[in-house]
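CORE FACILITY INTAKE
Project code: CF-77B
Contact: R.S. (postdoc)
Sample description: multi-component assembly, two entities in total
Requested service: structural model of the whole complex
Turnaround: standard
Below are the sequence entries exactly as provided by the requester. Do not edit them.
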Amino acid sequence: MLGLGQRGTFRHGVHPPEHKDETSGLAIRRFPFAPVLIVPLSQHLGKPAKPVVREGQEVIRGQTIAEPDGFVSVAMHAPVSGIVRRIALAPSISGTMLRSVYLEPFPASSQEVADGIPCDVDTATPEEIVHAIQRAGVVGLGGAAFPTHVKIRAPEGKYLDTLIINGVECEPYLTTDHRVMLEQTADVFMGIRYLLKASGAKEAIVAIEANKPDAVRKLAEHRPLDLPVSVRVCPVKYPQGAEKMVIKALLDREIPSGGLPVDVHAICVNVATTAEIGRLLPRGRGIQERVITIGGPGVVRKGNYRIPIGTTVRFALQEAGTATNLSRVFLGGPMMGPAVSNLDIPITKGTSGITAFTTDETGESTGHKKVYPCIHCARCVEACPLFLNPSHLGLLAKNEQYAQMAEEYNLMDCFECGSCSYVCPSHIPLVQYFRLAKKMVRKLDVQK
Amino acid sequence: MEFERRDAPFVTPSGSVPDMMREVLYALIPAGLAYVWYFGPGFILNLLIAAAFCAAGEAAMQSLRGRSVEAALSDYSAMVTAALLAFALPALTPWWVTATAALFAIVVAKHLYGGLGFNIFNPAMAGYVVVLIAFPLHMNLWTAPRMGDIDYHYLTFYETARYTLTGALPDYLAFDAISRATPLDAIQSGLRNLRTFDELRSYPLLGDFGGRGWEWIGNFTAIGGAWLVLRKIVRWQIPFGVLAGLLIPAGVMYFFDSATHASPGFHLFSGGTILCAFFIATDPVSAATSNRGRLIYGLGIGFLIYAIRRWGSYADGVAFAVLLMNMAVPAIDYLTKPPIVGHPRKRRETR
């Protein structure tokens, strides 16, 4: 079929400035331990983990400090050797308080990590791999933090044929996946081995956007010949990293509304997650650190850092250094990243980066854009990757017609990529409306 | 440290509603200069009067509605309306005609429907149609274009200003002496009097394709329009639709019977065709929103222009065509909703 310029991508979408050059050439560096590390027991979607340490207990780096509570839950591991000071509530990015383990590192604590029970890819059964992934505390590191072991097995009556390794990384400023692909190439392929075996998928495709040619080359060159894996280059476009879009781009399959990738026989795993699986499982370790990009104009020593889980944003920014006119900090990239209002929140498994802006980006002339009425220019309609009508949805949202938005205009399909807000010449905060509207619709549904 | 809480996305591209409106105004400059060159300084007077009354109307309505006057004036949308009106009106138009059109456009067509973004009808065209119907005598007073070999008395700036402001012509001139049929008028009535198109072409006011002077205004309008398309202020679907909707039926009819039908080139370069395609029909507020819808909307306007020119009682049909298609926009939008990703592609059931 002739896709007329749509080959290997999806239709619509936007092209925000990438700002990736500032950090994409910088090798991953280790991050020092903060004076206190806060490990929330709920860093993933699903049930919080059950702590298996008590206050005052000494733990060593890599030790399991919380066990999964049920299937949709994962383990937590100590990011540092030290003392459990307390298990108490700590602030989180969403504003809610989460039960967390406060760890105080021993002075001069080493980077050494305790090994656990290894899981060998050749001898382990798929079930054992699923279990090992859960024990390793692996969740989607791209940002969604959905427990990886839950999605790699097709439920009864469904099957998987394709494993998509998502190295698209379409968010501006972020280059963690890029660096991981360059520096942990072997880990990525090892992770693919585990995932292919566990899922039963016939082939794996690594999706990379065209702005990372070095990563494409590296992966293509080091591809193990016995592995059914290919590398596919997608044209640069936001939000191609979204699960729905990358599956559409690569396989031209559409996840049905409200459905999951498994409904189109695919699973999509972030490339950094895959690398972690490949790195951790052979030694039975768990996720107690991750790679994040600390970047944006407000950061002095921009770069990619392997940072212990539980490091506060405040400590991370102190170490990286910030501009004096810092005005806004958010986790992840500027298109979807939630704003940080309290710097004492910890970095969790789902944090892909810290981006800081200065008053130059958020000041009077650029930040506070005046809102004009919608003039129906339909730029948002041309941007929405799902072909929703944000312009009309925005009008309905303003009139609080939430039920109609959901029933007639498919509000609930929206995955809040923010493309509509990005292109709006009237500066209408469309995606903000939709976030609120979706919450209201869920509330209405509960009340029914 | 205190941070302002705001939601993603934190990046916005340059460009805003006032920027878009300003670019539309800039794109009209070549056409405006050509208009002044061929039809005299009356255009500038019309533009100033229209701008003043559009601004006054906008300010009055905003304050009556308890909204910020400054906010509305700073978006330049009223100025675009004023500019389009100035292009639609004859170069010699008494000030009160222009004022009526401007006030109707802003007060009734725009603000009584809810202001910018909510008006169903293109305000400039609504204002123009009101004066076209109400003051036919004044609206038919077109002068001859300034071409060296046309024998005609061109009014000076003083005479133009005097007529515009007081309605008085120089003593030695009568209404009939300065009034000339527009090429569209001449061809329409000529063809209906059973003269052939080729015969009518020898009429001194006709040039290579359309009317003399008009052709050049058309060219300069197209330059501005092409720029808007390149800048993506305007998508290609509506201009293409309008031109195709007009030129295809015109071409077919001319092909089969070139004696009693005007050529497609004549239609393209006469009246408001090009202005309509790039600047009038493309007003986003009153146009369709989906790409397919825009194409249909444009084609509809183009065809209606042809129908009115060919069978209607008005010589040009741009304003009526636009207003008629404005009414069809909700239906077009509803019927051209693209399928949503992840939903089955079934035929939409009509309600």
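Facility notes:
- The domain at 2-26+117-283 of chain A is CATH 3.40.50.11540 (Rossmann fold).
- Residues 42 and 422 of chain A are 31 Å apart (CA to CA).
Invoice: internal transfer
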